[in-house]
Amino acid sequence: MIVIGLTGGIGTGKTEVTHVLRELGAVVFESDKLAHSSYEPGTEAHGQIVSCFGEEVLSDSGFVDRNALGKIVFADSARRRELEEIVWPATRKLALALLKEEENRGTEFVVVEVPKLFESGWDKLADAVWTVESPRGEVNSRVEDRSGLDESEIDARVAAQLTPEQRIEKADVTIMNDGTLEELRTQISRIWDSIPKNQSK
Ligand SMILES: CC(C)(COP(=O)(O)OP(=O)(O)OC[C@H]1O[C@@H](n2cnc3c(N)ncnc32)[C@H](O)[C@@H]1O)[C@@H](O)C(=O)NCCC(=O)NCCS
Ligand SMILES: Nc1ncnc2c1ncn2[C@@H]1O[C@H](COP(=O)(O)OP(=O)(O)OP(=O)(O)O)[C@@H](O)[C@H]1O
Hints:
Layout: E1 2-8, H1 14-23, E2 27-30, H2 31-38, H3 44-53, H4 66-73, H5 77-105, E3 109-113, E4 128-133, H6 136-147, H7 151-159, H8 164-170, E5 173-176, H9 181-193
Parallel strand pairs: 1-3, 1-4, 2-3, 4-5
The protein binds dephospho coenzyme A (COD) and adenosine-5'-triphosphate (ATP).
């Protein structure tokens, strides 16, 4: 099985890339979604988040209120690291179990999408790392439109991630998402075609 780690800053186009890779036959896991499920009520991480951040980060139904938690952690890097120390190991455990399942199933290509792939050490789980990068101005307007985060909230998340230059230097492949979605699709197909197939370990 070949594991591709897909990274890139907030809003650079990682999800669009995963849509194309799914169509090309890869199984895709998104770490943001795994992270959210790692702290559902009843999990160890949920209890740790309540101990660390208090009941004020819970909604009436007992789920972690990500909006409230985000406001705390993106205003204070020490608090953000406390959250990462809880969530990253819990998410990694979920990801490792899913990777094992795919390996047992005989899947050839798995893509794991992780915004902070290098920061969290997940690059070591991947056979190759691809980073998706996009011009900053375009990123901000797209993320504002889609997520409702304002410019200063986006800037705070960007500041808590490696710079594009650092990711590009560390990655095996850089996908420059600075054109149309059709151009992005063509670029991905070309990179995909260059991977030797049926080379699973
Ligand atoms: C802080 C939380 C509660 C905010 O939830 P929210 O629904 O607003 O955002 P969501 O999880 O959908 O993430 C959206 C984007 O924010 C950015 N982001 C999320 N966590 C971080 C972080 N620790 N540092 C920098 N950027 C981050 C990423 O680009 C991500 O794609 C949530 O992101 C979280 O639990 N983060 C901790 C886990 C983590 O570090 N995940 C991302 C890196 S692998
Ligand atoms: N080349 C492009 N042309 C037009 N729109 C684009 C392009 N690339 C991405 N988008 C749009 O920009 C938004 C952000 O892209 P996407 O969700 O793929 O980014 P992401 O890296 O997954 O974001 P996040 O880090 O928040 O998860 C989406 O609405 C997407 O459709």
